[in-house]
Amino acid sequence: MTINTDDLINSIIDSLDRIENVQLSDIPNMDLYMDQLTTFMDERLHKTTRYPGEDKILTKTMINNYAKNDLLPPPIRKKYSKDHLILLIFIYYFKTVLSISDVQTLLDPLKKRFHISDTDGLTLSEIYQTIFDIEEKEVDPLKEDLLKKADIANSLFEDAEDADKDEMKLFAFLSLLAYDVYVKKLIIEKVIDGIDEKSGKNKSKEQLKEEKRAAKEAAKAKKAAAKAALKK
Q1: What is the pLDDT of residues 82-103, one digit of tens each?
Q2: CA 101 to chain centre
Q3: CA 93 to CA 97: how far, in whole Å?
Q4: Three-state secondary structure along 40-104?
Q5: How many Å apart are CA 47 and CA 51, to the nearest integer?
Q6: Is 0.85 topped by the overall pTM?
């Protein structure tokens, strides 16, 4: 038994059906409280998880941590706007393949456009629509690439024992997919490192340690000066 082309196509279709992109028109224009926000995300994105109904999409703790770590602007009077939701959807997708610090760097240009009007330049809504329009056009090339990888895998290990052949062909197919993900992730990380370097974010552990030490020394000096002023 080889990697059956028909089965592969069906599998691809099933997988793509689970990738349910949230349409811009479906994102509420009204501000939402936390419970309303998490409910909306669960309803719209649950099919994108590996185990729908079991995996968490976004929890209150996650969202609060994103705000604390400057991935997301804080809510306004405990409410989240349409721009908040757009950023959260991007965070949800990016964090599956990137570290939180890389996601933060990636989203910096978007956060600068948070709550700007269309007269001031590109809005988050326009950016969101453009990106998801492009992604929809990538479905057919993705299918072709998967079929190509399946053909390559099926051509390998022809001399192997029958008991091993099927497993090795499947292993080769999954290895090709994994390598593709690895290389693309590496490219993204290299580009992000370049962005961090230009902005001064890409600092060594020694630099960060020295900055912390200097900050502590400055705080001590300030405290000592305040005490001295009180004694006078």
Answers
A1: 999 999 999 999 999 999 999 9
A2: 11
A3: 8
A4: HHHHHHHHHCCCCCCCCCCCHHHHHHHHHCCCCCCCECCEECHHHHHHHHHHHHHCCCCCHHHHH
A5: 8
A6: no
Q: How far apart are CA 176 and CA 187, in angstroms?
A: 17
Residues 49 and 144 in one domain: no
- Number of domains present in the structure of the chain: 3
Q: Tell me, yes or no, whether 38 and 128 share the same domain.
A: yes
Mean pLDDT of 9-33: 81
Q: For residues 59 and 70, state if they share a domain.
A: yes
Domain boundary among 108, 137, 166: 137
Do 120 and 52 belong together in one domain? yes
User: Domain containing 211: what range?
Assistant: 206-232
Q: How far apart are CA 146 and CA 176, in angstroms?
A: 9
Q: What does the block give as tokens for 207? A: 């630099």
Determine the Cα–Cα distance for residues 108 and 91; give it in Å rounded to an integer.
12
Same-domain pairing of 77 and 67: yes
**pLDDT tier, 60 (very low <50, low <70, confident <90, very high otherwise):** very high
Q: Are residues 143 and 30 in the same domain?
A: no
What the block records as the tokens of 48 is 């994108």
CA gap 218, 206 in Å, rounded: 18
**Structural contact between residues 47 and 20, judged by C-beta atoms closer than 8 angstroms:** yes
